[in-house]
Specification:
single chain, 410 residues, alpha/beta, Alkaline Phosphatase, subunit A, 9-stranded mixed beta sheet, globular
Length: 410
């Protein structure tokens, strides 16, 4: 039966796979199916990029013309002549220069002032709020996208590779888990790379058969699903068009290259999730933040170029998120501490190509020098769910009707 190989595959070796009714993540909470939405777009893809640690939105989309910016950040303010100016007030960090062609082509939207009421500045609770779409004082047992996908399963195509794929097991399970994909009843894969997944699935040696014991039968079902998904993934890779784009030699670059290959091969996977660590910049922020944003900008630019070259860019929307922004004022260690409101990027051929939402003012901060949110992050989620995936956000995201949906798509 080779149970040891199965346990290694689903636990210690960086992989997990779910089939309907069986969840290796053992999620707690209410698993009652949400109302089924109409028109879910299974052949479209959302790529979520978590900027882990709390990205400094104020040095990402920069109010270079605001004197208060330099007063609050005498050492960390980016010089105005280096800012990639978007208008007379705001601009991108110079490390994001690789994204400027996307911005000029209208393939990039910058969402401003994202946050929520009563912000939580704990990394773990903060990311839990963003992953589940909850209120700050509310605990939900599954991810916001898990609810959307589970409600849509009755209409799922038979040829789907997975409901979601999370890249980077070693980064994922220690912090945030399955993230927005946490939930029962989904076929979700966590892996470091396709070939690693395929090799380990084949080494498991799943054999056809039945079992009188229901628990053992469930394990056999999962083994067979893992084996089937591995072979389907190999077939997609074998027939994928070649990618001529050169990606950065970073973990994020490699992960996005993997996603690009699978999308270009025609894989039916509605959600991919990746993460990049290092945004908890309490000290020596200038160089660290610039290097991180360079990786993000260069990797996303390569991803866009690769999908454009293979004719797949129209199938994809990319959205970034982070557990919180950072304080408006720098600290004594040439860094910034945990804050509140931040910013996000949305990229795709249907992106609105502009700044969305109101930039938080620097003259009016909260008692801890935090930027005040001008839009709720659940509005962004609602826009992704309804305007891109075609699902019913009001039924699947708590209080979605309360929040204005930003115009992230044309």
């Amino acid at each position: 039966m080779r149970r040891r190989a199965f346990i290694q595959l689903c636990g210690a070796t960086a992989l997990g796979a779910m089939i309907p009714g069986f969840d290796l993540s053992a999620a707690e909470g209410d698993t009652t199916p949400a109302p089924r939405p109409d028109g879910f777009a299974w052949k479209k893809t959302v790529v979520l990029l978590e900027l882990r640690g709390g990205n400094d939105g104020l040095n990402t989309v920069i109010p270079y013309a605001d004197r208060a910016y330099r007063r609050l950040r005498p050492k960390l303010a980016i010089p105005a002549d280096q800012v990639l100016k978007l208008d007379a007030q705001l601009g991108f960090h110079p490390a994001l220069k690789a994204l400027m062609p996307a911005w000029k082509d209208g393939d990039c939207a910058a969402v401003l002032g994202l946050g929520y009421e009563h912000p939580n500045r704990s990394h773990f609770r903060g990311i839990d709020i963003w992953n589940t779409g909850s209120k700050s004082e509310e605990l939900l047992g599954d991810g916001w996208l898990a609810r959307v996908l589970r409600a849509s399963l009755p209409g799922a195509p038979a040829d789907r590779l997975a409901d979601g794929i999370v890249l980077g097991f070693d980064k994922t399970m220690a912090y945030g888990g399955f993230g927005p994909l946490l939930g029962d009843g989904l076929r979700t894969i966590i892996m470091n790379a396709p070939q690693d997944y395929i090799q380990r699935a084949r080494a498991m040696g799943a054999q056809p058969g039945t079992a009188a014991n229901p628990a053992l039968g469930r394990i056999l079902d999962v083994e067979h699903t893992i084996a089937d998904s591995a072979e389907a993934m190999q077939g997609l890779i074998d027939h994928a068009p070649p990618l001529k784009t050169v990606f950065p030699k970073s973990s994020l670059g490699s992960g996005l290259e993997t996603v690009a290959r699978l999308i270009a091969a025609g894989a039916v996977v509605p959600v991919f999730k990746l993460a990049i660590d290092g945004f908890d910049t309490h000290a020596d922020q200038l160089g660290r933040h610039a290097a991180l944003l360079t990786d993000v900008g260069d990797s996303l630019a390569a991803f866009r170029a690769a999908l454009q070259a293979t004719g797949s860019w129209d199938r994809c929307v990319v959205a970034t998120y982070s557990e919180f922004g950072r304080r408006a004022a720098e600290n004594g260690s040439n860094g910034t501490d945990h804050g509140a409101a931040g910013s996000a990027f949305v990229l795709g051929s249907q992106a609105s190509g502009r700044m969305v939402g109101e930039f938080p003012g620097l003259e009016k901060l909260d008692d801890d020098d935090n930027l005040l949110a001008t839009s709720d992050f659940r509005g962004l989620y609602s826009a992704i769910v309804e305007d891109w995936l075609g699902a019913d956000a009001d039924a699947l995201i708590p209080d979605a009707r309360r929040f204005a949906r930003p115009k992230i798509l044309r």
